[in-house]
Design a protein that fits this description.
Blueprint (H helix, E strand, L loop, with lengths): L1 H9 L4 H4 L4 H17 L1 E2 L2 E2 H9 L10 E3 L9 E3 L5 H4 L4 H22 L5 H5 L10 H9 L3 H22 L2 H8 L2 E2 L4 E2 L10 H24 L4 H11 L8 H18 L10 H19 L10 H14 L11
Antiparallel strand pairs: 1-2, 3-4, 5-6
Length: about 325
């Protein structure tokens, strides 16, 4: 089985010599092979996916791929890939074991990149293992590396990771900004690398630029000593994460913040007989604020911005209200 994998995926790749490499040389060899496998098609799928499937399932965390065995075995009826079992590994020579370990490193990174799961950045790239922006070391690596396919897939993982963070914080304008990220230059949405015709450098730059723009917007709000929920209310009224803070919108956000802090926070409880009225009263307050602070056409009842505010108020009613230092 090992010999067949080497023939199918590493013919002429110098695997026997490479398994003796250490440190940066070994890391560069792994990256070069992963780049090749991500690029090379096999039928309808890149070789990277095929190699990943030889060892790992589509689960996060590199769960071993089960291999069906025909003779009677205990439930669930599958055994682990024999190359991953201790018994099978004991039959390999030292040289074969060294090649297997290298192949597993390559297959593991192929797995995470192809399925867009986070992985150990220090181990893979030699940079700080931090998926939150701005990781300056990661940004530099992504914008200077020769491994363009790896950079694209890694940037897409960053995009997914950020969406998850924004979702957890209920920061919907930022969540939607990343989920529906659009390249005006290439007139396309930023989807998975396999679904784009954008040049790799432009693809990576579009994702990084938006992540850093959102981060800087938040930092600007914190320098203005705006509370986290106030920043989000401003952006929810605006409908997007804007380039700057608007004084009029900020005044409207402040009025809603004060109301939510006093009249909504923690009120959506079973023991509060007036809980069903909390959202109705908040919607009424939004309309009052709209009339007092905003120009005609803003915050229509059927608008996305109105929905953002109602969702924010509901979370606040259940007690999700950020403290002064709870920043992104």
């Amino acid at each position: 089985m090992l010999a067949q994998i080497e023939l199918d995926f590493f013919k002429g790749a110098g695997l026997a010599k490479a398994c003796k490499l250490e440190g940066d040389e070994r890391r560069n060899y792994v990256l070069a092979q992963v780049e090749r496998l991500l690029t090379t098609e096999h039928g309808a799928s890149p070789l990277a996916v095929w190699l990943s499937d030889m060892f790992w399932t589509a689960d996060e965390g590199r769960t071993p791929m089960p291999w069906e065995k025909t003779d009677a075995i205990p439930k669930p009826g599958y055994l682990t890939n024999p190359l991953l079992s201790l018994k099978e590994q004991q039959t390999l020579t030292d040289e074969e074991m060294a090649r297997l370990k290298l192949i597993l490193d390559i297959a593991g990174l192929c797995h995470d990149l192809s399925l867009h799961f986070t992985f150990d950045l220090k181990e893979a790239f030699g940079v700080k293992n931090d998926w939150w922006m701005p990781n300056k070391q990661l940004v530099e690596w992504l914008t200077t590396t020769e491994y363009e396919q790896i950079a694209m897939h890694t940037a897409y993982i960053l995009k997914k990771f950020a969406i998850g963070v924004y979702m957890g914080l209920h920061y919907q304008p930022a969540q939607d900004a990343m989920a529906e990220l659009f390249s005006s230059e290439y007139k396309c949405l930023i989807r998975e690398p396999k679904f784009t015709n954008m040049p790799p450098h432009a693809y990576v730059k579009t994702i990084l630029d938006e992540l850093l723009r959102i981060k800087r917007h938040w930092q600007r709000g914190r320098r203005l000593k705006l509370r986290p929920d106030l920043i989000m209310l401003h952006d929810e009224i605006y409908g997007v994460v804007p380039l700057r803070f608007d004084k009029g919108v900020l005044a409207a956000a402040k009025a809603l913040y004060d109301y939510m802090d006093k009249e909504v926070n923690g009120r959506m409880t079973r023991n509060n007989p007036f809980a069903p009225e909390v959202m109705k009263l908040f919607a009424k307050k939004v309309r009052e604020v709209r009339s007092e602070y905003l120009a005609e056409g803003w915050l229509r009842d059927d608008s996305l911005e109105f929905a953002y505010l109602m969702a924010h108020a509901q979370n606040c009613g259940y007690g999700i209200w950020r403290e002064e230092d709870d920043a992104l």
